[in-house]
Write a structure and sequence with these properties.
Keywords: Membrane, Transmembrane, Transmembrane helix. InterPro entries: Mpo1-like. It comes from Lutibacter aestuarii. This is Mpo1-like protein. It is a single chain. Helix content is about 65%, strand content about 0%. The chain is mostly helical. The protein has one domain (about 15-105). α1 (about 10-15) packs across α4 (about 80-95), α2 runs antiparallel to α3 and α2 packs across α4 (about 80-95). The longest helix is centred in the N-terminal third of the chain and has 23 residues, at about 20-45. The two termini are about 20 Å apart. The mean pLDDT is about 95.
């Protein structure tokens, strides 16, 4: 993994390179959608137990994408906060059409 990244603006392009496989990106979208749904449901129904499943859903789908499709180590191990921010940025960029699941079209 690249060392000495000093800003989010420098990190995000690196993050996207670590998420170039379309199945990995799709799994991130699925996991993040479930995370958002769990968080909304937990708040709306006042069900604190649902918060337990948020990291399982988010990391579970993402790590399958990395270990089986990208075959790389998730950036969250070295840059946890920027990775979390990047995941939501990538998610919203994909669902709004600013970014494709197919990285060759970016």
């Amino acid at each position: 993994m690249k060392e000495n990244i000093k800003s989010f603006e420098e990190f995000y392009p690196f993050y996207l390179k670590q998420h170039s496989h379309k199945v990995c990106r799709l799994l991130h979208v699925v996991g993040t959608t479930i995370v958002i749904a769990l968080a909304i449901t937990a708040v709306y129904h006042n069900e604190p137990i649902l918060w337990f499943f948020v990291p399982i859903a988010g990391y579970g789908f993402a790590w399958v994408g990395h270990f089986f499709f990208e075959k790389n180590k998730p950036a969250t191990f070295q840059y946890p906060l920027w990775s979390l921010r990047s995941d939501f940025k990538m998610y919203f960029d994909i669902v709004t059409g600013k970014l494709s699941l197919d990285s060759s079209k970016d």
